[in-house]
Design a protein that fits this description.
The chain has helices spanning about 40-45, 115-130, 140-145, 155-160, and strands spanning about 10, 20, 30-35, 60, 65-70, 75, 85, 85-90, 95-100, 135-140. The chain is α/β, with parallel strands linked by helices. The strands form three sheets. A six-stranded mixed β-sheet has the order 1-5-4-9-3-10. Strands 2-6 form a two-stranded antiparallel ribbon. Strands 7-8 form a two-stranded antiparallel sheet. Strand 7 (about 85) and strand 8 form a beta hairpin. The chain is globular, with a radius of gyration of 15 Å.
Length: about 170
């Protein structure tokens, strides 16, 4: 069982891009993304723009600041057309975290240590509230491989797994 985690310092920036989750569908998937935009502000502005119709539950900035855009009990619009382990339309059963990084289009770079620590803490906090198995902590590229490549090859999946978030196979490069 997971221990007690002190509450993260969350900054609320509500997004209008949310709705009710489908009845009777568990929250059993955690999807990690990168923002793929030039700045954190541009990403947050887009995720809160009613015209864009996209959002996520959380955004983690490069300095470790965590922003909550959509309450976990509601559906955010982050995964799009998606599939994982027999399920489609994953927005209805997942929590989405956008991690600030310009992405492959705007100068993909390493994820800073403070940011990865905040991502890890946020994931552990989410996992303490929802029955999400390690195999369901996934990349956007895992659930939409024909469309997406985020969070990409520089993302520290192995470090997250060492800290109890997701899976990393022994001996994998």
């Amino acid at each position: 069982a997971l221990g007690h985690f002190p509450p993260l310092a969350l900054h609320d920036l509500p997004s209008p891009n949310q709705d009710d989750r489908p009845d009777g569908v568990p929250i059993d998937t955690l999807i990690l993304h990168y923002t793929g935009m030039q700045t954190a502000q541009a990403a947050i502005d887009r995720l809160r723009d009613p015209e864009a119709h996209v959002s996520s539950h959380y955004v983690v900035d490069e300095d470790g600041a965590v922003f909550r855009l959509v309450p976990e009990a509601r559906r955010a619009f982050h995964a799009g057309i998606s599939y994982w382990r027999g399920n489609t339309a994953l927005n209805g059963r997942s929590i989405g975290i956008e991690i600030v990084n310009p992405g492959h289009e705007w100068g993909y770079r390493d994820f800073p240590a403070l940011q990865m620590a905040a991502v890890c803490d946020l994931c552990l906090s989410i996992l303490s509230r929802h029955p999400i198995p390690p195999r369901n902590v996934v990349a956007h590229s895992d659930v939409a491989p024909d469309r997406k490549e985020d969070p990409g090859e520089k993302f520290d999946w192995a470090g997250l797994a060492r800290n109890g978030v997701g899976l990393w196979p022994a001996g994998a490069p």
